[in-house]
DNA sequence: ATAGGGTTAG
């Protein structure tokens, strides 16, 4: 009876159709009874079936019971681990197969092993596998080669990827898409788009995954027009849109400044996961809509999706923008309860940044000290924290410790450091750090570095040196730099350079009233009355359309917003009384408020 | 037949 039912060889299609563990176990039992497990391909098929059904344990048990696993068994167990996302185990199995297994790996073995290397960014193991595959005659295999392309792309080696791609005799959609995605994440969006065009001209039709790569490219450069045309392309070709494609669209529109389109796409999505929500939340947080971002975080939870690290990072960013310490703290508590903070630098840095921007330097430092993995961005956040709190000396000492820890400072490190030094007026240290950036680390200074340096020099009365520095810039200096020079000149009564800076500022037409006030004050000090009245006219015109600034104060977890001459707060009488008292106390201590130019 | 390419965050 039994042997009639499972007459060998056990049909593969039957096993591959089964994906329920019990049925596979039954088939397994039958095969043991008929002695078929010892056969050629059956164990492999069975292991593969266990793997597909997610029963890795049973797959491993069966595999380990085999005295001499065949290639199909090896591949099946390796693939089962690939489903389970355990790259280390895959490489371990691969090495065992090669060294003692006696079975020769084939194209699919190499493919899965290379994928594991890509996940681990393990270039060295990948190269070993590459030469092994070449020795066995797989150097022209599309699967192996595409996996290698992906390995190079994940390791940031697009030059090597390109070199291999160029000599590949056979390429398919996956090879092309790997290159497109690789260029996008390497910050080379134009190369990505160029590759897509080449792919099309060679008659290869794109799919959703290729579109995701292209949308990423547009997001990187914030190119709305191109993003829009890719969106149109997707619709025209009637491509299936899944969550990932739609999320990429949301992200692309958000990054290219079209929040309302991002919102519209999102609201029409049928399936939303935590990634889609996070894309939307970060879109709002990064565009300064902190309250909306926080509101969406709540809505996501209401819809039954719990925040993950990425959504919390955006939530924390929103908190730091509006100084919402209480909520930031509760996020911190939430992620500790959920044990989300282990080994996640991004999350840890976001918490540090939140405490830093909410004025809790000590909390930030405590957290920084216990962070298990500190990369250069974590250090940057901490250095910038000291800068924000006006402690340039500590920022500098942290910078030195960072170098001792063998971490390479980048342009952001120096931006934070220079800004900290300039706010503390540490001129010599500023000059040294600027030179260190240029000579020791060969970092091209950007607008921010120059602005801090000019601010530092001009503030200390070295307007001439600041101007010399500006003249070494290759790019055209922006408003911030001239304003820094101007304000230093105003304080030190350096009217000649000051007027020169003022002219530069006016030429750049900033739409900041404060800047015009500064320019006007300089001309007034220099007794250039024609210019003063001219600027007053400009300011009056601007004043009409300027949106009023406001400040936010958090009390007992509630945010209170205040505008100029705002009396809408229910307790405004008491508030004003306290302010008056504070001003009186300050004057008693010798503080003389500097009244800036008043509009008439 | 099996295997390779995709979304969010400091």
TrEMBL record:
Which PROSITE patterns does the UniProt record give? PPR (PS51375)
Which GO molecular function terms does the record list? RNA binding
A Pfam family found in this protein is PPR_3
Superkingdom to which the source organism belongs? Eukaryota
Q: What's in the keyword line of the UniProt record?
A: Repeat
Q: Where are the PPR repeats?
A: 141-175, 273-307, 375-409
Record keywords: Heme included? no
The record, for InterPro entries, names: E_motif, PPR_At4g14850-like_plant, PPR_rpt, TPR-like_helical_dom_sf
How far does the signal peptide extend, from start to end residue?
none
Protein's GO biological process: RNA modification
From the Swiss-Prot or TrEMBL record, give the protein name: Pentatricopeptide repeat-containing protein
Task: State the encoding gene.
Answer: PCMP-E96
């Amino acid at each position: 009876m039994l042997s009639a039912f499972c007459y060998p060889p056990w049909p593969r299609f039957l096993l591959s159709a089964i994906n329920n563990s019990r049925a596979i176990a039954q088939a397994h039992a039958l095969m043991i009874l008929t002695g078929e497990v010892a056969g050629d391909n059956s164990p492999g098929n069975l292991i593969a079936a266990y793997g597909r059904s997610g029963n890795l344990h049973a797959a491993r048990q069966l595999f380990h019971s085999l005295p001499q696993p065949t290639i199909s068994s090896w591949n099946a167990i390796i693939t089962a681990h690939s489903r389970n996302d355990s790259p280390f185990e895959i490489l371990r199995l691969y090495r065992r197969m090669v060294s003692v297994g006696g079975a020769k790996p084939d194209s699919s073995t190499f493919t899965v092993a290379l994928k594991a290397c890509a996940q681990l960014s393990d270039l060295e193991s990948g190269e070993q596998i590459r030469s092994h595959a070449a020795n066995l005659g797989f150097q022209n295999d599309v699967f192996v080669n595409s996996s290698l392309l992906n390995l190079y792309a994940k390791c940031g080696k697009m030059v090597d990827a390109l070199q291999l791609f160029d000599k590949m005799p056979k390429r398919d959609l996956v090879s092309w898409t790997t290159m497109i995605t690789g260029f996008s994440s390497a910050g080379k969006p134009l190369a990505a788009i160029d590759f897509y065009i080449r792919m099309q001209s060679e008659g290869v039709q794109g799919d959703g995954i290729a579109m995701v790569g292209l949308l990423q490219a547009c997001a990187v450069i914030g190119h709305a027009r191109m993003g829009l045309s890719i969106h149109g392309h997707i619709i025209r070709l009637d491509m299936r849109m899944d969550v990932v494609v739609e999320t990429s669209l949301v992200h692309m529109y958000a990054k290219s400044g079209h929040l309302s389109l991002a919102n519209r796409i999102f609201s029409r999505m049928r399936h939303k996961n935590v990634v889609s929500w996070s894309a939307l939340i970060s879109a709002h947080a990064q565009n300064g809509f902190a309250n909306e971002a926080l509101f969406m975080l709540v809505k996501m939870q209401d819809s039954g999706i719990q925040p993950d690290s990425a959504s919390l990072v955006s939530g924390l960013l929103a908190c730091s923008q509006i100084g919402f310490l209480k909520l930031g703290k509760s996020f911190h508590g939430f992620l500790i309860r959920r044990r989300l903070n282990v080994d996640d630098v991004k999350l840890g840095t976001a918490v540090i940044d939140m405490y830093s921007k909410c004025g809790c330097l000590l909390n930030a430092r405590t957290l920084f000290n216990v962070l298990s993995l500190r990369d250069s961005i974590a250090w940057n956040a901490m250095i910038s924290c000291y800068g924000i709190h006006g402690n340039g000396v500590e920022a500098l000492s942290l910078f030195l410790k960072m170098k001792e820890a063998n971490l390479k400072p980048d342009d952001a490190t120096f931006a934070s450091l220079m800004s900290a030094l300039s706010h503390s007026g540490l001129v010599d240290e500023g000059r040294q750090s600027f030179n260190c950036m240029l000579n020791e680390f060969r970092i091209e200074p950007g607008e921010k570095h120059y602005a801090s340096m000019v601010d530092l020099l001009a503030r200390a009365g070295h307007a001439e040196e600041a101007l010399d520095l500006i003249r070494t810039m290759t790019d055209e200096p922006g408003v911030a730099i001239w304003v820094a020079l101007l304000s230093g000149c105003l304080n030190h009564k350096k009217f000649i350079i000051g007027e020169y800076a003022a002219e530069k500022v006016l030429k750049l037409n900033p739409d900041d009233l404060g800047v015009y006030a500064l320019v006007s004050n300089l001309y007034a000090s220099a007794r250039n009355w024609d210019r003063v009245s001219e600027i007053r006219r400009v300011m009056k015109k601007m004043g009409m359309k300027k949106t009023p600034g406001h400040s936010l104060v958090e009390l007992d977890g509630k945010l209170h917003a205040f505008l100029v001459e705002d009396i809408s707060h229910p307790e405004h009488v008491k508030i004003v009384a306290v302010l008056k008292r504070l001003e009186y106390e300050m004057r008693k201590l010798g503080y003389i408020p500097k009244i800036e130019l008043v509009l008439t």
